[in-house]
Fold this sequence. Notes:
The complex is a heterotetramer.
Chain A: H1 3-26, H2 30-45, H3 56-67, E1 73-79, H4 85-101, E2 105-110, H5 116-131, E3 139-144, H6 148-157, H7 159-162, E4 189-194, H8 198-210, E5 214-218, H9 224-231, E6 238-240, H10 241-252, H11 257-295
Helix pairs in contact in A: 1-2, 2-11, 4-5, 4-10, 6-8, 10-11
Chain B: H1 3-20, H2 28-63, H3 71-79, H4 93-123, H5 132-152, H6 161-212
Chain D: H1 3-22, H2 36-40, H3 46-55, H4 71-92, H5 103-118, E1 122-125, H6 134-153, E2 157-161, H7 164-180, E3 192-194, H8 199-213, E4 217-221, H9 227-237, E5 241-246, H10 252-258, E6 261-264, H11 266-276, H12 279-308, H13 312-316
Parallel strand pairs in D: 1-2, 1-4, 2-3, 4-5, 5-6
Helix pairs in contact in D: 4-12, 5-6, 6-7, 6-11, 8-9, 11-12
Amino acid sequence: MQAWLIIAYGLLIVAGVALLVFAFRTGDRRYLYLAVLLFVVFPVVIVLKFPTEISPETQLLYDAVEKLPDSSNVLLTFDYYASTLAETEPMSRATLRHLFRKDCRVLTMTTIPLGGPSIAERVTREIAAEMGKVYGVDYVNLGYKANYVAVLKGMGSSIEAIYPTDNSGTPLAKLPMMSRIKNYADISFIIAIADNDIVSYWISIVRAQYGTPVGTGVTAVSAPQYYAYVGAGQLTGMLGGMKGAAEYEALVGHPDRATKGMTAQSLVHLFIIFSVVAGNVIFLIQKRRAGAGGQA
Amino acid sequence: MSAIEIFQIWIAAFFTLALFSFLYRDNPCYRLAEHVFAGLSAGYEVGLIWNSVIIQQMIDPMFTGGEWWLVFPGLLGVLMFARFTRDYHWVSRIPLAFVMGTTAGIFLLSELHGKVLPQVQSTMRSVNPSEGIGGVVLSLLIIVGVISTLIYFYFSKEHKGVLGGVAKLGIWFIMVSFGAHFGYTVMARISLLIGRVQFLIYDWGDTFTRIFS
Amino acid sequence: MKTTVPVIIAFLAGLVMVLAFFFDPEKSFVGRLEPEVLRWVTIVGGFTLLLGVVSIIRVNYGGVHRRSSGWGYKLATVVSVFAMAIPAMLPTRMSPLFGNGPGSIYDWLFNNIDAPMMSTMFAMLAFYIASAAFRAFRARSPEATLLLVTAVLVMLWRVPMGEAMLKGIHHSLPEYINTYIMGGANLAVQRGIIIGAALGAAAMSLRIMLGIERTYMGN
Amino acid sequence: MTFAKFVFWLLVCTWLVPASVFGDTIVPVVDSTSPNRFQDTSSGSVTAGAGAASEVSPGGGNIPAFRTQRINALVLVLVFSILVLVYTRWAKKGKNLFIRKINGLDAIEEAVGRATEMGKPVLFIPGIQELDNIQTIAGISILGRVARITARYETPLRVPVPYPMVLAAGQEVVEQAYIAEGKAEVYNKDIVRYVAGEQFAFTATVNGMMIRERPATNIYMGAFFAESLLLAETGNAAGSIQIAGTAEAAQLPFFIAACDYTLMGEELYAASAYLSREPLLLGGLKGQDWVKILLVIAMIIGVTLVSLGWGDWYLSLFESV
């Protein structure tokens, strides 16, 4: 690590402690807000990379994609709202990079009405431009259709029946890639990236009834409930929260927003723990002093 | 990046910063953002209800589906406006009673059947030593936790004696649970903030380089 | 009349829902009635929205009209309501900018102004959760200490560095936290609260259906 | 309605009437796997829904289309209703029913009093859900009680609501409370006002209100989600006394951290009865407590049977499909 990085982060910690002292002295919570802001912004601007330990669930997903024959058809879903972008978007970007690198044909869709389709368009077009992929040949965005259970089941018999056109209104028949994808039978792998319960439907409807393997990326809050599915083999791999996304970025060899965000996340988290512990130590010391004063 | 995209990012960045500024203190930027936000979301609600309820669930089925009886819920809705009259004010209670009664009917069973039965069922865990020490401890923790929490909420007696003891145990369990839940949520909230900061630094920041180059 | 009619209506509406629960949704009359009643509720709610619009316009336009303090902000609210609502209510066939599909004004305003503001408000929780933790987690009493200790343990467990630290104390401490705190005590309390609240909600429902609780009529 | 009448009607309606009138066996069996149906089930378990649909037909005996596998829910509802109504009836007869003190609720009157002294408003938020959530209805009932107190002292009251039907119900409740206290002239239509239908827009507006008007007391009663802490922390920063109540277990830790008093889970539903001091309403709480005791006994029996390895039949009694 370079010396100036150590100095910069050392100063950051000193500033954090100073702000904490001010917060305690004045009782003004804005010092704390400022400290939190500092600990988030600083690592995003001045990146400090911690070594990432890859968890088995992430490795499982990576290996499953890696083992796909080149030019397989893969369905990637954008089942998340704009509010959880920090955790979910890096997952989409990292998996998309991996899929494109393996020359997979990527089909995207969403079960989120507002925001979902535009996030899918933005992310896929950006990564496609970066990797030199062509719309309609290498990837297609299906967009959103209401009533997700009906959509998930209906795509088992005919994707075209559910989505007559793609997100921008082009009939699927006019997109060369779609001539080889009719239903789940033509899809080798599904990656469902979601911030809600939809993943359990991908498992219980699609994985269970059509047999297509499903991997997932979910927010840190919902990750624990899906470990059981990974253990039971119903999910072929899982990315949990920003940490999972950072791990995948490391595996793909293209560190991006999650890797940069992870440092900030750990730092703020540790700062909050430190502030709680320090607050209590001071509180107990004051209490003891007051107690001693009272007896004297 | 086109001019319109830059404009979109600037709009989003302005409102993002305006809302964040509330953390320092109330100010005209926050007030403007707050009022625009309130107006847009009320308008959003109108657009949503108009298209997905009035058009899709009432007008379309009535005129193209022949479901003429949908005029009745429409009339029921109109009764809501009786509150603006002096003598027939009470009539507006009819649609309210209809909605409340329906809610009550749904919840009476969904709560007892959908929550009480399965939660009670999954609390009946084996404490047989064959489950292993870890299994027995976990089962006991859950059984005692559920029962003492329920007892904590018991209204019919003063919390004294044995009841008081169990209720006290209940409050300890509750505190452990709340601490755990709070601690567990912190990380998710931080990542939300990181998302906004990354937007400001990467996306908004990027527009500066585009503008000046 | 003024209270009897609403009470009877509430009872009948609730009864349909209770009966529908026990009968087959397709093979019985009440079963088929249920989705219809739910649609009615949605439509009544749709009409009531006009009351909401009247309320928000009256509160804000009143201020603009009187030029009371901050009337400019109130004008911003009124303008925003109309800017979002009117294009959304016009049919798409007149112009692709109308309606609520992709490319409409409604969609643009939502994606570029509403959505970023929602995410920002949500993100502000990071600051609030930090200050709430700092202020509330103090070892003031045995109960508060319990809250504090579990919160700190769980927070440590959630970050890689903290997890390593816990592993240093005892190699399976993180696993114990997951099993006995999250899956044990936490689960048990959530369950206890859910069961109790469900009983409370059911009793409340019963009181409303039977007209015992009729606060909404001013009794 | 008396208890006997209720049971009579419940029996008539759940068994006899549908059996003879509504239950028609003529309608052919519709494809029970149509996906739309699963959307409505709150259980979230798709496979359970499918199983339930296919199991129906012949088991119902002479009552066509009755879902026999839900008979346990019927028993629970009957036992529950009977206990609640027996106590309601006793209460009506004037039997003295003891209910323990609930701290948060005793604090309400005091907190309104403080607002009166300071000449500042009371802010009441009946949750952020529509009237189709029972917690909102509980919130509205509590609002009725609180409005009586504010009317009595002529303390200004602010009730921002996020949905139109809550607006209608809230206005009705508050207006009636002011009339009942003989303070109709103090009532103003804008006490209860509609504010933005979206969770965070609502929060932004209410937060602005808290900082600008500095209400002396904030009362949150109903269904709250992620905005719970945004509201409660801002209220705390503005120096208001805060009393919260919700049945959303996930939000309780945040209210506990930032409010002075918090009603947890069922205390929210008990609040309106408690505040009204009406024996009729208090009776219900007693019945509810009895069901709680029965459930605890049922659980202990279950644990014993399961541990001895004889529990399968017993567990199946609690199966919810």
